[in-house]
Design brief:
Structural class of chain A: alpha+beta
Radius of gyration of chain B: 24 Å
Shape of chain B: globular
Number of domains of chain A: 3
CATH class of the largest domain in chain A: Alpha Beta
CATH topology of the largest domain in chain A: Beta-lactamase
Largest sheet of chain A: 5 strands, mixed
Strand content of chain A: 15-25%
Structural class of chain B: alpha+beta
Number of strands of chain A: 20
Strand content of chain B: 25-35%
Order of helices and strands of chain B: HHHEEEEEEEEEEEEHH
Number of domains of chain B: 3
Oligomer: heterodimer
CATH superfamily of the largest domain in chain B: Rod shape-determining protein MreC, domain 1
CATH architecture of the largest domain in chain B: Beta Barrel
Largest interface: A-B, 33 and 32 residues
Shape of chain A: elongated
Number of helices of chain B: 5
Distance between the termini of chain A: 128 Å
CATH class of the largest domain in chain B: Mainly Beta
Largest sheet of chain B: 6 strands, antiparallel, barrel
CATH topology of the largest domain in chain B: Thrombin, subunit H
Radius of gyration of chain A: 38 Å
Chain lengths: ~700, ~290
């Protein structure tokens, strides 16, 4: 019971009604303000606020696609995507270790009385931790025989660190600045031999062993992981490097699916993808590249990726089949590599082989070349300069501009016969030289050839016959004939426009800088004066201002083989190709005239300038050429050979060019062996795959 | 408050205190407690295992004479076949020895074999881990491969004084490199536990797209022998069904059926390497060096 004698409760001080009302309304107003503010934020601003929140807590990672595969005509892979194994450190999981190392360093510094900036200390802590892990990684993965033997001997010794493997502080800084959300790469490309020997494996076997050792021995639940991604690989090394090209880094690849509006505002992190930098890799970029996927991640307050919320996979690019035959290409390159200059280094050269009917290019080699594998991950300036110094960037087969020399005599003869200034069986007297104006134009033998007809001219490559006939024909008719054979037109154009933004099969089509000279051309050259008969004489033997490419001359050979004027070459394989060539027409010679030209080219191999490269059992037609040019101020020779095989039923046409350095360079002797090697390889394949067994000498493979 | 209520409260307080101590205590204490518990449990596990063996022995003793005669006859046949195989192997051994003599090649033994009985298999996670009745005292070391015949069962994950825990090949913690049957390029593929297809299956990944497998039969997987843990050529199982292409389209992956029913294994062999692998040494120094 309550004690009634307790203290008395007094009434509170009376409050005026007005004051109560003021208090009530003030409280109400404040409450209303809060409620309205809340409502405004919840109902009106909620979308924007959610976006702000998401943009601070979420991130989109753009994942690049794998590029399409490039095959050669028989289905062998020329360019593939190989797996690249890299050891990466998850920086989020290492936060604790970083903190411990930081505190430890801080204590040491304080004990030593040193004063160090906090950021510097944190960086040192990170470096120490990552270096510790890197040492452990190499302790496990280094599987070279030397290390194995050492380890067996010192199996109970202390952990051996590889001091040559250091974490690069600049790379770490860049990573933290630009890609903090992603794991930091400790070892790149574990399984691929690195020619420089600085990183990666010494041999493929070493690389495989390192990957296997990491998988089987390194703890899988720690912060260090083995991750794989896809990189471009050229399994045949430098084979057809100019044709295939190489790839470079890019951050702007198209997306598989559009990121919706909500994600548009989020921070985006693009993983580096690859884009074509040269060759087919560049010209067919739109086909090969594929489309990127994306991943939506939540992120920590420190900016690291935390949890994967959603993922859309990238789509691989389309595959491409080239017309190249790997074996013939390999033979062409190997054969070119055997042509050495006085300093025992391979001479600059090019070789092309074309299928006569379809125009498909079976081989296109250019020397010197490069290894696209060494460019696919990173283009080092030293390797770039090395290739540049050798002149290896130039695709001599399509971009090299050369005077065709005596191989042009065929066109000179055709122009003359079409104009009717010489007959196919007309015999001309050909002495040791021919005077044009006040200058003697020489034959390439001091005694001359005497009576020479068209067949003999082609067999022995008589200059004087061409001077006489060229002057009779005139520059305009010769130039017109050269143009009719396409010597002024761009090749490797793509009528179907398969490459986006480009109408060429290669980024630099064969055709820039071509010259088919005539009077108008010379008039445009300042100080050159008018066209003279001497210029016509020079043009008739394929010298002077005339400039063409080895691919153009291979096309001329293919056109001759078919009896037409144009061959449209292509680097893409299509078994349904109908053999028609845009802009092509019959050459317009009589049967006897054509027979004389063909016979002359056959005699060139049987008894003429190409007799040293005869192939028993495979008669073929050829025309050699040796033209003069100036290299580094000194006179040098270009060695040419063009032709087709088999002579009776042509299937392939070819052209070989070698940039010689001395007087010992001759078409048949220098360029001929390359043509012979390519033909032998082609004949071997044709025999083993398509045709019955090669018969007696004289039976050509079909 | 009566004494019972006080006792209940006290026990809760004690439990909370223990939990707090466990969470706040240094890792060395936690590790010691865990190890102590395992060692305390070991005799019980051994007793259970031996009782099971005894029960099995008595069950066999209760078989009829006819059954024993039939079993004896079967054994006789198997023995005869094995005798023949033994003779062949003897010839191979002699040839091997002769060739080694010619080459002056004398490889030391790479592995030592320890036979162990399975003493514990948790019903809820039989496809992840088993406990075997051999431990540090018997020379078992972590990372050692565990096999049955030429079939890989898993590898030793943790070693205690008298027992060891083995990660089975279907366990998420298991990783191994493998070669595929019929792969002429000898590509390395990755075998890991816990396939998406379900428990009791492993996952093979990084299979090249060009790989087709042998015609008409499920491809077998064998160890590569280059990872430094498993000898080469051991059976890792067969691929179940067809391989599927990975999202990026560069590789294939598939489910792998272990070479042996993992829930029926009673005895295994531990292959203890003569030389400890670098990975083993890192694991040993894990507490003070790794984390």
């Amino acid at each position: 019971m309550r004690d009634k004698t307790g203290p008395e409760i007094l009434p509170s001080t009376p409050v005026g009604r007005a004051r109560l009302l003021i208090l009530f309304w003030a409280t109400g107003a404040l409450l209303g303000y809060v409620l309205i503010g809340l409502g405004y934020r919840q109902l009106i601003q909620s979308g924007d606020l959610k976006l702000q929140s998401d943009s601070q807590s979420r991130r989109v990672v753009i994942v690049p696609p794998a590029r399409g595969i490039i095959y050669e005509r028989n289905g062998h892979e020329l360019v593939v995507n190989r797996v690249r194994w890299s050891v990466k450190a998850d920086l989020t999981e290492l936060q604790g270790e970083f903190r411990k190392a930081y505190i430890s360093l801080l204590r040491k510094n304080r004990a030593a009385g040193e004063k160090t900036d906090g950021d510097t200390l944190l960086e040192r802590a990170r470096m120490d931790v990552l270096q510790g892990w890197l040492d452990k990684v190499w302790f496990v993965i280094d599987a070279s025989e030397r290390r194995l033997s050492t380890r067996k001997a010192n199996v109970n010794g202390p952990l051996q660190s590889h001091r040559e493997r250091k974490v690069n502080v600049d790379e770490l800084r860049r990573h933290l600045r630009e890609r903090r959300a992603l794991p930091f790469t400790l070892v790149t490309d574990l399984s691929f031999p690195d020619p420089s020997g600085r990183e990666g494996a010494a041999t493929p076997e070493d690389g495989n062993r390192s990957v296997a050792r990491f998988i089987e021995q390194f703890p899988s639940d720690g912060p260090i992981r083995l991750e794989s991604d896809i990189v471009r690989s050229y399994p045949n090394g430098g084979l057809a490097a100019h044709l295939l090209g190489y790839v470079k880094d890019t951050d702007s690849l198209p997306m598989t699916a559009n990121i919706d509006e909500q994600m548009e505002s989020l921070q985006k992190l693009r993983l580096t993808g690859k884009t074509g930098a040269a060759g087919v890799e560049l010209s067919l970029e739109s086909v090969l590249r594929g489309t990127s996927g994306w991943e939506l991640w939540s992120k920590t307050s420190a900016g690291y990726n935390h949890e994967l919320i959603r993922r859309v996979d990238p789509t691989q690019g389309g595959h491409v089949m080239l017309s190249i035959d790997r074996d013939i290409q390999r033979t062409a390159e190997a054969s070119l590599a055997r042509i050495l200059g006085p300093d025992r280094t391979p001479l600059p050269a090019a070789a092309v082989m074309i299928e006569v009917r379809s125009g498909e290019i079976l081989a296109m080699a250019s020397q010197p070349s490069f290894d696209p594998n060494r460019l696919s991950i990173r283009v080092s300036s030293s390797y770039y300069e090395e290739i540049d110094a050798q002149g290896g960037w130039l695709n001599r087969a399509t971009q090299g501009l050369y005077a065709p020399g005596s191989t042009f005599k065929i066109i000179n003869a055709i122009a003359a016969m079409r104009k009717g200034v010489v007959q196919w069986d007309e015999v001309l007297d050909c002495g040791p030289s021919f005077r044009v104006g006040n200058r003697d134009f020489p034959e390439h033998t001091p005694e001359g050839y005497g009576p020479v007809d068209l067949e003999v001219m082609l067999a022995v490559s008589c200059n004087v016959w061409n001077y006489q006939v060229g002057l009779r024909t005139g520059v305009d008719a010769i130039a017109a004939e050269a143009r009719r054979f396409g010597l002024d037109s761009q090749l490797l154009t793509s009528p179907s426009d398969s490459a986006e933004g480009s109408s060429f099969e290669l980024p630099y089509p064969a055709g820039r800088g071509l010259v088919v000279p005539d009077q108008a051309y010379k008039r445009k050259i300042p100080g050159a004066g008018p066209w003279s008969p001497g210029d016509t004489a020079n043009l008739s033997i394929g010298q002077g201002y005339l400039l063409t490419t080895p691919l153009h001359m291979a096309c001329v050979a293919a056109s001759l083989a078919r009896g037409e004027t144009r061959t449209v070459p292509t680097i893409f394989h299509d078994p349904r190709r109908d053999g028609r060539h845009a802009g092509s027409a019959p050459i317009g010679l009589s049967r006897e005239q054509m027979a004389a030209i063909r016979s002359g080219m056959e005699r060139c191999v049987e008894e003429g300038t190409a007799r040293s490269v005869q192939i028993p059992g495979l008669p073929f037609a050829a025309k050699t050429g040796t033209s003069e040019y100036f290299k580094d101020g000194a006179k040098a020779h270009l060695a040419w050979i063009i032709g087709y095989a088999p002579a009776s039923n042509p299937v392939v046409a070819f052209c070989v060019l070698v940039e010689g350095q001395d007087d010992g360079t001759w078409g048949g002797k220098t360029a001929g062996p390359v043509a012979r090697d390519m033909l032998l390889r082609w004949a071997g394949k044709a025999t083993s795959v398509d045709a019955p067994v090669q018969g007696q000498p004289g039976d050509a493979p079909r | 408050m009566n004494r019972d209520e006080k006792g209940v409260k006290a026990s809760y307080v004690l439990l909370i205190l223990i939990l707090l101590l466990w969470c706040a205590g240094p890792s060395v204490v936690r590790r010691f407690s865990r190890e102590a518990f395992t060692e305390f449990q070991a005799p019980a596990l051994e007793l259970v295992g031996k009782s099971r063996d005894l029960a099995r022995s008595w069950e066999l003793r209760s078989r009829s004479t006819d059954e024993l005669v039939e079993a004896g006859r079967d054994l006789g046949r198997i023995n005869a076949a094995l005798e023949l195989r033994l003779a062949t192997l003897r010839d191979v051994n002699e040839e091997n020895a002769r060739l080694r003599q010619i080459l002056a090649y004398s490889p030391g033994p790479e592995y030592r074999t320890i036979v162990a009985r399975v003493v514990l298999r948790e019903n809820t996670s039989w496809w992840q881990r088993i406990t075997i009745r051999k431990g540090r005292n018997d020379g078992v070391r972590p990372f050692s491969p565990v096999v049955f015949g030429r079939q890989v069962i898993g590898r030793v994950a943790q070693v205690h004084m008298e027992t060891s825990e083995v990660d089975l090949i279907t366990s998420p913690g298991f990783r191994c490199t493998a070669h595929l049957e019929g792969d002429e390029n000898h590509n390395i593929v990755l075998l890991s536990g816990n396939a998406a297809g379900g428990i009791g299956r492993a996952l093979v990944s990084n299979v090249p797209k060009t790989y087709g497998g042998p015609a008409g039969q499920a491809p077998r997987l064998t160890t590569t022998g280059i990872g430094g843990v498993y000898p080469s050529g051991l059976d890792l199982g067969t691929i179940e069904g067809s391989l599927r292409t990975t999202p990026k389209g560069e590789f294939q992956e598939g489910d792998v059926v272990p070479p042996r029913a993992l829930n029926t294994i009673h005895e295994v062999s531990v292959l203890v390497p003569v030389y400890p692998s670098p990975g083993e040494r890192l694991t040993e120094s894990r507490i003070d060096d790794f984390r």
